[in-house]
């Protein structure tokens, strides 16, 4: 079954707790939390205090996507706020091996994300250490951008790498996921679909989630 992780970036931030409950009731498996620092990406969203506040509203798996520099500085804070999985970027400054080790030491699942312009060779050294790879199909920073199809081969490349190396690895895709692009990614072997604007523009996202579960 394809895992569905709606991106809360497209939710109404004035009622994030209620929006989280809406996502959970619609049948979502995880909630994707986009953390931006205004440095790694040209936008700022929210951090540990907001995640801690919304954690009280739901037990859904919190899939945190850290678009921040030097993420090791904040792993403890995001873990303590209630994240279940934490994904860092291979392009971020600082000790990425250390950040991954810290996420694992906290007992959480660790993910590694890769930007559209980055070659897969940049993430290879980290793959033995992570549980998930998040393939970006837009330039990170904003919701509602168009899917970059050139990134799709990274999905199949990562699945093949995992098979060859006998490693259990989930592959997730993030950016421009909709009715059509979701199928392209599932055909390439993706395990997790992250979607923001496509799902949140619906009054009821349950049918779309159900359809993706069945892909
Ligand atoms: C972009 C974020 C995405 C974003 C996706 O930087 O990582 O998670 O919310 O939004 P859509 O699905 O609208 O492209
Ligand atoms: Zn994201």
List keywords for this structure.
single chain; 8 strands; 8 helices; binds D-xylitol-5-phosphate; 20% strand; alpha/beta; globular; binds zinc ion; 8-stranded parallel β-sheet; 215 residues
> Which stretches of 5+ consecutive residues score pLDDT under 50?
none
Strand content: 15-25%
| Separation, N- and C-terminal Cα atoms | 7 Å
Shape: globular
Hetero groups bound?
D-xylitol-5-phosphate, zinc ion
Determine the number of helices (DSSP H or I, runs of at least 4 residues): 8
**For the largest beta sheet, what order do the strands appear in spatially?**
1-8-7-6-5-4-3-2
What does it look like?
- With 215 residues, the protein is α/β, with parallel strands linked by helices.
- The chain is 32% helix and 20% strand.
- It contains 8 helices and 8 strands; from the N terminus they run βαβαβαβαββαβαβαα.
- The protein has helices at 16-25, 48-55, 75-81, 96-105, 153-164, 179-187, 197-200, 206-213; strands spanning 3-6, 30-36, 61-67, 85-89, 109-114, 132-136, 170-174, 192-195.
- The chain has an 8-stranded parallel β-sheet with strand order 1-8-7-6-5-4-3-2.
- Strand 4 (85-89), helix 4 (96-105) and strand 5 (109-114) form a beta-alpha-beta unit.
- Helix 2 runs parallel beside helix 3 (75-81).
- The mean pLDDT is 98.
């Amino acid at each position: 079954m394809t895992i569905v992780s709606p991106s809360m970036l497209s939710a109404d931030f004035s009622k994030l707790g209620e929006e989280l409950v809406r996502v959970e009731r619609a049948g979502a498996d995880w909630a994707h939390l986009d953390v931006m620092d205004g440095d790694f990406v040209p936008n700022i969203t929210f951090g540990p205090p907001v995640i801690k506040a919304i954690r009280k509203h739901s037990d859904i798996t919190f899939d945190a996507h850290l678009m921040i520099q030097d993420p090791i500085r904040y792993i403890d804070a995001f873990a303590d706020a209630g994240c279940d999985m934490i994904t860092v970027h291979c392009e971020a400054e600082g000790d990425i091996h250390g950040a991954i080790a810290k996420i694992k030491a906290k007992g959480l699942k660790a993910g590694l994300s890769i930007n559209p312009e980055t070659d897969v060779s940049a993430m290879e050294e980290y793959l033995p250490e992570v549980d998930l790879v998040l393939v970006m199909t837009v330039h990170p920073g904003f919701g509602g951008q168009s899917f970059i199809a050139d990134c799709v081969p990274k999905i199949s490349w990562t699945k093949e790498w995992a098979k060859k190396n006998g490693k259990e690895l989930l592959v997730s895709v993030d950016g421009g996921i909709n009715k059509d692009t979701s199928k392209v990614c599932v055909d390439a072997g993706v395990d997790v679909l992250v979607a923001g604007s496509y799902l949140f523009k619906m009054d009821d996202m349950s049918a779309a989630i159900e359809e993706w579960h069945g892909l």
